[in-house]
Amino acid sequence: MGLAGLSLGACGNAGSRPLLSSDTHPSDYPTVQAVRYMGDLLREETGGRLDIRIYAGGQLGSERDTLEITSFGGLDLNRVNLAPMNAIEPMTLIPSLPFLFSSTEHMRQSLDGPVGDAILQSLVPHNLVGLCFYDSGERSFYNTRQPIRTPEDMEGMKIRVQNSDLYVSMIRALGADATPMSLGEVYQSLVQGVIDGAENNWPSYETGRHFEAAPYYSLTRHVMAPEVLVMSLSRWNKLSEADQELVVNAAKESVPFMRSLWDERVEGAKTRLLAAGIEANEVDDLSAFQQRMEPVWDQFITSSQQQALVEQVQQIGRDLETRS
Description:
Structural class: alpha/beta
């Protein structure tokens, strides 16, 4: 189904058709399965009156394209990475800040509470309703040359990043050359020496076969930015208050389901990659990396509202550390 047909379909008979949802990930990916689970919950709660039809695997285009279509009301639901959101809403930069979260637990606890709610709420002026956050893993650096233990080990390396000003600034602050490119280009670029490395989570490092060309995986865990499930505000406004509550509750219930699948996927990828002979190393002292991020944070955290949320996240981290 093309986007034109999808958009036209969205204009008619909005009360009876399924909610149309897009995801660039393949159909077996945890985010897709989570939205499918959300649809199951809605179907069960409403006797089939509310349902979700998912177009996975990038059938409807890139995240930037589908995000725009969702804001115009041509799509009902959309699972997107935070990177394309950063350009339209400054509050979404917060979970993307390098070295903001000290652990996955820290990230999850922060985004499950008032901080996450505030970020989701910031999407409403962009004609989007933020429903929930899904994990996107702990991102670490991998390269073709050597283990990375200090920022100096990255000097002069060409590192692939997402098309994000924040990510480009992070790489430059570490002394490397940032090379924005699509994920699909990374493997060939590593093989041909166009880039020296990239950064991503364990499952992506495996499924993209990047480990074959770049066997050094250094566990910086520098970014734990989540993905977000959004709904078109125009579609949201067509729902009754009772149905809005059902949609929100089903989205929230899909989060632990997604996280369970994700954690299992991470452990599986890690086990297989270590068995395949990649060289993984912990980074004993992250402070040298963190110190280089101060100007990056200053560049992107420019409002008092952003700063207040950053401080809340940092306090959550301190509280977790105290309890442990």
